[in-house]
Structures are given as structure tokens and as C-alpha cells.
Specification:
Number of domains: 3
CATH topology of the largest domain: Rossmann fold
Strand content: 25-35%
Number of strands: 25
Strand order of the largest sheet: 8-7-9-12-13-15
Shape: globular
């Protein structure tokens, strides 16, 4: 039965029944495996219509447009691999990829067409997504059952655990020239520093052997996988990519892998899987004959719970804008579904007027680095097509609660810093004094020559750990009431821009187990004293 025919039957038999706010497009062999997901979403209050995938992408889109005429449609879930219409196994494999003409990235060697699911979200042809769309690129009913079970465990897990306050970044080397690379790295650090609230813990793993954020190059792949396995809210890669892997860390003595599709089966993040964002070329090329990196990561039992990735050649400016808008939606917009957050980030990316200071700074930088006559709005439009969500668009993103933190705006090294905290939780609290993210706790070493000796490799690990630490002091206490106070002993060696960061894990008055985060800025007037840092300089050095 065709998708259009099933829609007509639903319209004729529905009578006074409410119109669906969720449409699932799936091949018939997957319908039985979808039943637990449909029942679960209906228990949450959604009206779900499952229809059979058949025909070309334009036919699927036309049927969705008819469903959307009711005004109720909010989500579209595509189930199965993308496939060419001429494939004999088409009706048994999944939903075809929608293809749009490329205008900008073809100048940098990309294919003339972009594989995108945005065609199923943009129902009026203006490129702006009207509904949230996501794809589960499974190849069998058994894979679908396993992925649905993982999604449900993720949503129903208690809202607690320090992994929920972590955001881990991995950065490749731009390769656009020294000046452009430094500018892109500065922009990425700005996104991290300004976009992710200070109450969250971030890490950076940089694929440059000269960076203090580079671990032992020989263990780089292991470190990247560990950053996924340890659990985090988001795991983000920024850099070059290919269909099956991201770029390599290159040293004067050779190259080391960062992450490939073959690593997916080795991941062990079952208990606390992250949402992965791959700001890189081709890593989300879901329409290829071979599984792309994003598909491999999502299908892995110990991999991410969802992946946002680009399907063709992507560009630094377009990715930066989309990344900034996604961060803003996640951390300023509060809890919601992942599909809604991605949809709103794409809509904001397409805004013609960009008046805030950060957007104007990124636009100015892109204007300097781009060829004359390059259309920045056209590049942003193309990245709305390029980036697709592989995952459930109804996935509920539950962020920690907000805790109110009050601390003196200025304090002195060696003094006692008074901190007051208010939240609705009773349990365990961790209160930390941390450096602002754009600062290191030491003067970074200057690496002019590459050394693979055991001593040098150990030094890489030590500097990498310290660079990602940033915590000057901390205290843990048991919280017995919703408001509490404590004192932090500010180290003699601290100085400069810092934050007080608070994490509370416990139970609310309604008995629910949850966690809360909060922060407050503090400036430490420091003393110049020698401390145990890589170069013997003072902690908090700038």
C-alpha cells in the first residue's frame, strides 16, 4: 500500500479523531518493530500515524504536505536507510533521501546535489523547516528494536550524574593556512566560552601536537573514545571529515587516527550516551552505499544516542553559525525535544538580520576570509540542507535544573570566599572555584620540535590533563535544606577571571531524583607566587 493511499484511508476513517502531530514513514517490514515506540509516544500524549514508505522522495513529501494541512503536524520520523528508487530492495530498506541542488559548496569540490532530510521538514518550499525531522537509519527490525530500547532508557533514566554537566569537544586542524587556522580556532574557543554556560564542565582535545590540549599523540584515538565513553551531554567534533572517519593528527613523525566508523563497535557509553555533533564534511553522508561515520556511531550499542552531521562538503562559516545557534537553543531555550531544538537552530541560521555582537563578529571574520562576492546567507542556507539529524526527533533533552549561586564579584588570593546557594534539592553538593574557560592554569609550553620519547609522551598527558582541569579548589558537602552557605579557601596562587561552579545531586520535595547546576563570576586579585605548574609560573597565568 502506498504512503498516499494510507494517508487517504486515515483521512476517510479518522472521523472526529485528532489529527496526528507525529508521522512515521517506514517500510512495512519495520511496522511491527515500531509498535512499542508508537505506544510509548502515544502515552506521552502524541497522536502518531505510521505510514508505509513507497515511491520517490517527492511523493513522500507530497503526502506529508497533505497531512500538514490539518495544522497539527510537528514531527516526522523517517525509519530505515536512504536508498535509490531503482533499488530492487527499496520498499524493504527505508526512506529515500531528498536531494537539493548545491550552489555554494560545489565551488570547493562537492557533488552537485546535497542529500538532505530537510525536504521532509520544509513543506512550503522556502527552505525553512516547518516541522522537526529525524531519521533512524536502521537496516533491520532487530536494529530498530535495539535502538528504540536505547532511546527509551535514555529518556527514562534518572536526571542525575555528573556526566549530565559535561560537554566534550574535539578539534581538528583547519588546514586553511596559519592565519585562517588561528582565526577559526579563536572562533571555536569563543563559541565554547560564551555559548556553553559556565556551570557546565567542558573539555577540549585538539589534534595539534603543538597544543596544550593535545594528549599523547599515539593515544589520541584512545583519548577521543574515552571522552565518549565517560559520558557527556554533548560530544562535539570540529574539523575536517570524510565519509567513514574524521581527519588525522599529523606530527613530523607520522599521522594518528582520531575516530573512524570502525571504532564505533568499541565504544562503551551504554549507561550515559552523548548526543554527537560532527561539524565536518561528509561524516553524515547517509545516502551512500557504505555506512557513514554518523550512521555507524548511532547504530553502535555503546555509541551516541543521536548524531547531527553534514552530508557533503561543509564550510567553517556555515558550520560556526549553525553550531552557535544550536548551543543557544540548547542552553538558553531549556528542555525540549532534540528535533525542535535543531529545527529552531536552523530557522535562526536563516535569519537575514544578524544584529547581536557575536553574529556580527563571525560574519566579519568570514567576510575577510571568503573570496570576493561570496554570499554568506547562501552559505548558511546550504548548511541547513547539509546537516541532518540521525536520531529520534522526539528525543527529550532533559537538562539539569538551575541553582542560584551568589558570591562576591571580587576577592583576594588566600582569602575565604563566601558562597550562597539556593536550589530545591536535598543531597550532595560540589562547589568549585574554576578558571574562566579562555584561560589556562599555566603558561603553555612552546613545542618547536616533536619528540616521541616516553618522557615526552608522559609530559603530553600531564599537560593535557592540567589544561582541561581549570579547578583551583573545591569542597563537597551534604545539603540538608534548600538554601546553604559555605566558604571556599582561595589558593594563594590564584588570580584573574574565574567562576564559582556548583553541582548538586539529590532529591526534590516531590521525591524525584535530579541534579542542579549554577555559577557566578568572580575576579581574584592574585599574588605572584611560584606553583607546581608545567613551567613553574603562577596558577591562573594569562
Amino acid at each position: 500500500m502506498s504512503l498516499l493511499l494510507q494517508f487517504c484511508l486515515w483521512s476517510a476513517l479518522g472521523g472526529g479523531e485528532p489529527a496526528p502531530d507525529v508521522v512515521v514513514v517506514a517500510p512495512r517490514p519495520f511496522h511491527a518493530a515500531l509498535e512499542p515506540w508508537v505506544e510509548w509516544r502515544q502515552e506521552q500524549g502524541h497522536v502518531v500515524q505510521v505510514v508505509e514508505a513507497a515511491g520517490e522522495a517527492s511523493q513522500v513529501r507530497a503526502a506529508l504536505q497533505r497531512v500538514a494541512e490539518s495544522g497539527a503536524l510537528k514531527y516526522v520520523l523517517l525509519v530505515g536507510d536512504a536508498w535509490p528508487v531503482e533499488s530492487q530492495a527499496a520498499a524493504e530498506r527505508g526512506v529515500p533521501a531528498y536531494h537539493a541542488a548545491a550552489e555554494v559548496n560545489v565551488r570547493w569540490g562537492s557533488e552537485p546535489e546535497i542529500a538532505t532530510d530537510n525536504g521532509y521538514a520544509d513543506l512550503d518550499g522556502d527552505l525553512v523547516p516547518d516541522v522537526a525531522v529525524g531519521r533512524l537509519p536502521v537496516r533491520s527490525a532487530a536494529e530498530l528494536q535495539g535502538l528504540v530500547a536505547r532511546i527509551r532508557r535514555y529518556e527514562e533514566a534518572e536526571l542525575r550524574g555528573e556526566w549530565r554537566r559535561r560537554v566534550n569537544f574535539v578539534a581538528g586542524v583547519g588546514g586553511f593556512g596559519a592565519i585562517a587556522d588561528r582565526a577559526i580556532e579563536a572562533a571555536a574557543r569563543s563559541i565554547i566560552g560564551q555559548g556553553v554556560p559556565a556551570c557546565y564542565v567542558t573539555s577540549m582535545t585538539h589534534a595539534s601536537w603543538q597544543s596544550p590540549y593535545c594528549p599523547d599523540p599515539a593515544r589520541f584515538r584512545e583519548t577521543v573514545c574515552r571522552r565518549i565513553d565517560e559520558g557527556c551531554l554533548f560530544w562535539v567534533y570540529i574539523g575536517h571529515g570524510q565519509r567513514r572517519e574524521v581527519d588525522r593528527l599529523r606530527t613530523p613523525e607520522g599521522a594518528y587516527g582520531i575516530l573512524s566508523a570502525d571504532d564505533a563497535a568499541k565504544l562503551r557509553a551504554e549507561a550515559h550516551p552523548p548526543i554527537a555533533v560532527l561539524l565536518a564534511c561528509y561524516t553524515g553522508a547517509f545516502d551512500g552505499d557504505e555506512d557513514c561515520l554518523a550512521e555507524s556511531l548511532l547504530r553502535a550499542p555503546g555509541g551516541p544516542i543521536a548524531v547531527l552531521a553534514g552530508s557533503r562538503v561543509t564550510m567553517p562559516y556555515g558550520m560556526s553559525v549553525l553550531g552557535m545557534e544550536l548551543i543557544a537553543e540548547v542552553f538558553a531555550g531549556g528542555s525540549g525535544t532534540l528535533g525542535e531544538l535543531v529545527m529552531r537552530a536552523k530557522r535562526n541560521t536563516l535569519r537575514a538580520e544578524r544584529r547581536d555582537a557575536q553574529s556580527q563578529a563571525v560574519d566579519a571574520l568570514a567576510g575577510m576570509l571568503s573570496p570576493a562576492g561570496h554570499d554568506l546567507l547562501a552559505e548558511r542556507r546550504e548548511h541547513v540542507l547539509l546537516f541532518n539529524l540521525l536520531g529520534d526527533p522526539l528525543l527529550r533533552l532533559r537538562l539539569p535544573e538551575q541553582a542560584e549561586v551568589i558570591a562576591d564579584g571580587r576577592t583576594a588570593a588566600g582569602s575565604q570566599l563566601q558562597v550562597r546557594v539556593r536550589s530545591r534539592l536535598i543531597g550532595r553538593a560540589k562547589v568549585e572555584l574554576v578558571l574562566r574557560r579562555d584561560r589556562l592554569p599555566f603558561k603553555p609550553p612552546v613545542r618547536r620540535a616533536y619528540d616521541e620519547s616516553p618522557a615526552s609522551r608522559a609530559e603530553y598527558e600531564r599537560v593535557y590533563t592540567l589544561a582541561n582541569a581549570g579547578c583551583l579548589c573545591s569542597r563537597e558537602i551534604q545539603v540538608e535544606q534548600e538554601q546553604f552557605e559555605l566558604e571556599l579557601q582561595v589558593p594563594e596562587t590564584a588570580r584573574g577571571a574565574c567562576h564559582v561552579r556548583v553541582y548538586i545531586e539529590g532529591r526534590a520535595s516531590d521525591g524525584s531524583a535530579t541534579c542542579a547546576l549554577g555559577s557566578a563570576p568572580v575576579y581574584v586579585e592574585g599574588k605572584r607566587l611560584v606553583s607546581n605548574t608545567p613551567d613553574g609560573d603562577e596558577a591562573g597565568g594569562e
